[in-house]
Design a protein that fits this description.
2 copies of one chain form a homodimer. By secondary structure, the first copy, chain A, is an alpha/beta fold. Chain A folds into 2 domains: 5-53, RecR Domain 1 (Helicase, Ruva Protein, domain 3, Orthogonal Bundle); 76-169, Dna Topoisomerase Vi A Subunit, Chain: A, domain 2 (3-Layer(aba) Sandwich), CATH 3.40.1360. Chain A has helices at residues 5-14, 22-35, 37-53, 88-97, 124-134, 147-160, 185-193, and strands at residues 55-56, 63-64, 81-85, 103-106, 138-142, 166-169. In chain A, the strands form 2 sheets. The first copy, chain A, has a 4-stranded parallel sheet. Chain A has a two-stranded antiparallel sheet with strand order 1-2. In chain A, helix 1 (5-14) packs across helix 2 and helix 2 (22-35) crosses helix 3 (37-53). Chain A is globular and about 75 Å long. Chains A and B meet through helix 1, helix 2, helix 3, strand 2 and helix 4 of A and helix 1, helix 2, helix 3, strand 2 and helix 4 of B.
Chain lengths: 202, 202
């Protein structure tokens, strides 16, 4: 017997979230409505505020609150070091490491003939423009190590080949804390080919 | 470097959802804002509609759109059979089985001295009132098999002991598809004590 159209509608809406199936959506909806109405309001308000204010940075393409994002307009970050990422999410992950001091370019996708995503969809001309304007010295390609990621990397390499820009790619190898027994063959092969000579104490 | 206050606010808000940690919240927020704005709007609208319309049924306590819920006001469901559940969520789970044809009473909690939940918080007097009004013949206690669930079951048994109402409790035993090797000791013990004699073909 149907209990409530509106609860069912909320359960269906929550299934939109990545990784949320029917059971989890039900749990979330009933938790919000029975014990956490303030939380529900907060989520709804945060979504509305974000939807009203968020837009892509005109320069690097990251989604944020400003026309030109904090990183692109920063005076303290290296202007001649550019990291190319697939998505805002990847940019967030790299920022969390506090390891990278340059600027970013967000492709917002990867080349994929199946999904009909070509070079024009990735704003490659804007990327070339930024490289020339800022006199970029090094481009770090930080794309996922998937078929589409590799294809896009090679396309970018091809596009930038004639410039003086140094082009690098994230290292592939054994993850930190990884056990060799559980690392797949391809990763292990890559870890061999990317091995680095250790310095000896002479 | 902070990219966007509003994205951070949304990530923090999504962490309110049960089972959602910082990584998942980030993934959800960026997925909604970069590739699924319509979905984000739908979630926000569904939350607002549900918050505006949802209230507890005056009779059984289930959260729903009506003053008296569809089940309590149904003419087709057994009026003298009452299933006591902890939460709306448990009621949804039982309804999904389509096995139960009676009505419900939702305690919206379990007795818990630690969380300061006493009998008055569980509307026990309303439960007794319903039992008398409807001339209930059987009460099925369908509470979680936890310490609080058991304590609440015994309390309910004590309250209803002097009536003529038949009181039963959900069976405990091996779950459907369960492997005896992976069933814990307590469950196995319970399965022995709840065993049922099989009928012989004479």
């Amino acid at each position: 017997m149907k209990i409530s159209e509106n609860i069912d509608a909320l359960i269906n809406a929550l299934k939109i979230l990545p990784g949320v199936g029917p059971k989890t959506a039900k749990r979330m909806a009933l938790n919000l409505l029975s014990t956490n109405k303030q939380g529900a309001e907060l989520i709804s308000n945060s979504i509305n505020i974000a939807l009203d204010t968020i837009r892509p940075c005109q320069c690097c393409g990251v989604i944020n609150d400003l026309e030109i994002c904090n990183i692109c307009s920063s005076k303290t970050r290296d202007n001649d070091l550019l990291c190319i990422v697939e998505s805002t999410s990847d940019l967030f992950s790299i920022e969390e490491t506090r390891e990278f001091s340059g600027k970013y370019f967000v492709l917002n996708g990867l080349l994929s003939p199946i999904e009909n995503i070509g070079p024009d969809d990735l704003r490659i001309s804007k990327l070339i423009e930024i490289c020339e304007e800022r006199n970029v010295k090094e481009v770090i390609i930080a794309l996922n190590s998937t078929l589409e990621g590799e294809a896009t990397s090679y396309y970018l390499l091809d596009k930038l080949e004639k410039t003086d820009i140094k082009i690098s790619k994230l290292a592939q190898g054994v993850p930190a804390g990884g056990d060799l027994n559980y690392v797949d063959n391809n990763t292990l092969k890559q870890a061999f080919s990317w091995r680095r000579e250790l310095e000896k104490n002479k």
